[in-house]
Amino acid sequence: METVKLICIGCPMGCDLSVDLENGVPVSVTGNTCPIGKKYAEEEVTAPKRTVTSTALSKDGVPVPVKTAGTVPKGAIFAVVSDVKKAKPSLPVRIGDVIVPDAAGTGVPVVATKDVSR
Amino acid sequence: MAERVKLAIIGGGPAGMAAAIGAYEAGVRDMVILERDTELGGILNQCIHNGFGLHTFKEELTGPEYASRYIERVKELGIRYETGTMVLSISEDKKITAVSRARGLFVIEADAVILAMGCRERPRGALNIPGTRPQGIYTAGAAQKLVNCDGFIPGKKVVILGSGDIGLIMARRMTLEGAEVKLVAELMPYSGGLKRNIVQCLDDYGIPLLLSHTVVDIKGKRKLEGVTVAEVDKNSVPVPGTEEFVECDTLLLSCGLIPENELSLTAGVKLNPVTNGPFVDDRLETNVEGVFACGNVLHVHDLVDFVSEESERAGAAAARYLGGSAEKSEESVVKIEPGDGVRYTVPSTVDREFCDDLIHLRFRVRDVYRSCAIVVSSNGRTILTKKRRITVPSEMEDVILKKTDLKDVTGPVTVSIAGV
After folding, report:
1. Residue B327: per-residue pLDDT
2. Between chain B's N and C termini, which has fewer beta carbons within 10 Å?
């Protein structure tokens, strides 16, 4: 059995988690103080995911802050950012507007996080 | 003739907006928020990363999204705000002198004032780093504004001094923008930022965090060429022989935040030398009657959620003061003092007769303490004990006292960490 130590990123508490793995499959999580910690630990040792935030440069040259509308696989972060940089949204942009419909083939859209006008 | 207003709020960031909403909900209508930037939202506008609002909204928002919730509410309630307006001074009788493009120089006479100016970053000049003064040295927040709001990337090879949250966030941000972040050096043996930021911003990208390290030299005549990083001993003194030169074109400083209280001083507000923020009572009122303080101008917070919560209370307290129902008595005021392991407390006094039913005590610990307990006591009597698995200086602590707990208290109330 293998044990992986993690720090939970579910909230600012940052609980010290310990995950027991059997053949790469998580069998128990300890150290968490809430269900978010358990879910995070199980996901982190099998398929780690992150919310990605960045800025898309609008046609007018003003940056538009964006985020992935959900989490994406950790390995796709740079590809998602690359797709964001290719997008050239036209202003004005409203909060929640879709900037990239499917970021790097993850099926997760990238949306604006701020109202931006010229 | 000077304009008159019941309540003036200085600053339209998270603290100012929440204070205004808190005051509105407690019945105040005649008020104005004065904001020096061109839009409301304050520093949240440049904090495009996620992680805000878990406490307030039970969901994870980015900075601009968190701000927009409050901006929408301010607009919905019809709370007046003036952007592009720089407050120059506040007199002891609450005359506010401000300047804006639209109005020029003008004076507002307020019955109550809420200070919500936030904080600023400690610059290189305050850090005593030896070396030359080339281009390429920024505070982390200045770089954040350049990247996120102005669309400029300050450099390609980056060293970050200080592991404050903005520095950690910028390590990831610069990496995603194509820069190489070589390392983060932290003077203390522990990080100055939240643990989750170390995982998500450094570990995810393989950026080393060198604890007990600092920058001892800066090289470059016109443009930064590199910095010398060295290990420090227990007294933060560089250890000879550990110096290492790191080539870089950008040095970001994330070495602490200082409440911005120049205006508070013009009003005669007394500051706590530990927090650099005003001394306040349980109503968040300063020593100047009718002048309240909240958010990072009062003490630097770790989470904006706590700023919002505290600021709504300041707004409600200002409303009560304006309504004439803010009774107080000199005799029933007791001091709240930091004990072992505690750096400061906010508030620093409580009126045990006229306080609210619940009193929020916020403070920071001096060091990392494991399996400890927060103890609130008075004259040797324990009022409250709260067990903690771990406490760290980078995270704010919070205990809530009941008014009934303070009924028989005569001497000062002490907040300490047991077993230190």
Report:
1. 81
2. N
